[in-house]
Amino acid sequence: MDMKESDALDMGDDADTEDMKKPAEQEANKENSTGLGPESNIFALRTTANREEQVMDFLSSNVVKKGIEIYSIIRPHGMRGYIFLEASKRSEAEQGAFNVPYARGVLPSTVGYNEIEHMLEQVKHEINIKKNDIAEIISGPFKREKCKITRIDKAKEEVIVELLEAAVPIPITVSIDAVKVIRRDTEDLVDND
Predict the structure, then answer these.
(1) What are the pLDDT digits (tens) for 20-51?
(2) Which of 4, 28, 93, 183 has the most CB within a 10 Å radius?
(3) Rounded distance between C-alpha atoms, residue 126 and residue 178, angstroms
């Protein structure tokens, strides 16, 4: 049976125990400075690759049905085979993942917030695409096609383009990440010289 440090500290009343409580209190204060509560830990749950969304759905329904103390479930973008759980205890995380299809188990050690912080924060990149730019589509069914940017929707991170080699100009909506600017509008070329 696993004993937590706090369980072991509460058993005795001698002076040595009082000395041991101070590091535990400092650890609790350190956890508060990272944004997690004093009773909260982050655990990594191993899953079958590309099944993370399904595991999250099953896990969240388990948490609601059984009243398990899991505070958040996180699936970082681009990380396959793992999701992160914020729970009070390891046993709560394991109970939440019990009998969940495609869940392979909770890793033995906790994960520090600073280890996954870079995966959670969304960094906004400045968009360097302007109307009338000539671009190349780099992904999707129109890959390697040259196009002209006709409209930019920064909120949805989409651009509307018209293919240059097409007989009839048809507006196509693609993700901003799916285009690469080849040439700037002629006004910009004059300004840069």
Answers:
(1) 333 333 344 444 444 555 578 999 999 999 99
(2) 93
(3) 15
